Amino acid sequence: xxxxxxxxxxxxxxxxxxxxxxxxxxxxxxxxxxxxxxxxxxxxxxxxxxxxxxxxxxxxxxxxxxxxxxxxxxxxxxxxxxxxxxxxxxxxxxxxxxxxxxxxxxxxxxxxxxxxxxxxxxxxxxxxxxxxxxxxxxxxxxxxxxxxxxxxxxxxxxx
Length: 159
Fold this sequence. Notes:
It is a single chain. The chain has 4 helices and 8 strands. The longest helix has 12 residues, at 15-26. The relative contact order is 0.16. It starts with a strand and ends with a helix. It has helices at 15-26, 78-81, 113-117, 149-158; strands spanning 2-7, 30-33, 44-48, 64-66, 95-98, 101-102, 121-122, 135-138. It is of the alpha/beta class.
């Protein structure tokens, strides 16, 4: 199978697309960045959109589209959410990235996190998304609200 990945608007490496890539490569599929010129050559195309105000220019009805900018209810399946990301998609990325927690305890009018992810909870252990990288970028929205945040920080420090 030939899989196309389309990062619509993310300014940092797109974690969801990295996980989808890892999943499909493990299945023996060919994974590459989407090119609209070769749209009909892909068996599946995944598009990830972070912001609602971003242009939908290359999005097509036959794509599998997700992300906060598209649909708050669309989530990765558990086996993909917890797979080690394919960092080879972003060769200049010299850090690992992931979510130790998801959600938030607040309900700020301007924020979509509680509607998208619910209340704060543990999501993953750091070893799910890091191996030998020297730096880690946590994407958590409100890790300090998680009651076990000090334990998580201790694990990170010791690593």
